[in-house]
Design brief:
The protein is α/β, with parallel strands linked by helices. Helices cover about 45% and strands about 15% of the residues. It contains six helices and five strands. It has helices spanning about 25-45, 65-75, 90-105, 115-125, 145-160, 165-175, and strands spanning about 5-10, 50-55, 85, 110-115, 130-135. A five-stranded parallel beta sheet has the order 3-2-1-4-5, sandwiched between helices. Helix 3 (about 90-105) crosses helix 4 (about 115-125). The radius of gyration is 15 Å and the shape is globular.
Length: about 180
């Protein structure tokens, strides 16, 4: 993959499947809409920017998470040339590590849903990724994911402090590669 230049807008992905109600009512979809708004703002300021969809989550019975985000962006009018899809990162730490490795010197804007935002900020700080953060407050949360995120906002710093981050990633990635979320 050739690195693109410009401002990198990244909606930190949340599993869009297994939810109640239409997509446009969900928190993940609100992040997609905010990404488009931010992209348009940068373009109106004559700044080069694009939306990076970064996820390699594939759950049995659902489309690939990155494809769902891509399709939602196209559905709301984002042009193909303004979208980059990278199927890497099974979980938040892996996504932040990938960004650090590939776009460390770029102007990065991370969009994360409210319940996930504290952990995203923590991981960026601990892994040394300089990024602007925008928290998405609108939209319905997936109950199971909201509970997990709430717990991990407190548990992940302990996991990291104990040096168990790689162990944690291995557990999550193993579960996701088996087709479960």
């Amino acid at each position: 993959m050739e690195k693109r230049h410009g401002i990198v807008i990244v909606p930190i992905t949340k599993f869009p499947g297994d939810r109640k109600g239409p997509a446009y009512e969900q928190d993940w979809y609100e992040a997609v809409k905010h990404a488009k708004t931010l992209l348009n703002w940068f373009h109106n300021e004559d700044k080069s920017a694009f939306i990076l969809v970064l996820s390699d989550v594939m759950v049995d019975g659902y489309p690939h998470e990155a494809d769902t985000y891509h399709d939602a962006l196209r559905e709301i009018g984002v042009e193909e040339k303004d979208i980059e899809v990278v199927k890497e990162g099974q979980e938040t730490v892996g996504q932040i590590e990938w960004l650090k490795q590939n776009y460390d010197e770029s102007d990065i804007w991370l969009l994360s849903v409210r319940i996930h935002a504290p952990r995203v900020r923590y991981i960026c700080k601990k892994f040394g990724l300089k990024a602007n953060h925008k928290t998405i407050h609108e939209g319905k949360k997936r109950t199971k994911e909201a509970i997990t995120d709430f717990i991990l906002n407190f548990a992940f710093p302990v996991i990291h402090f104990l040096g168990l981050t790689k162990w944690f990633q291995k557990k999550v990635v193993g579960r996701r590669k088996s087709g479960k979320h």
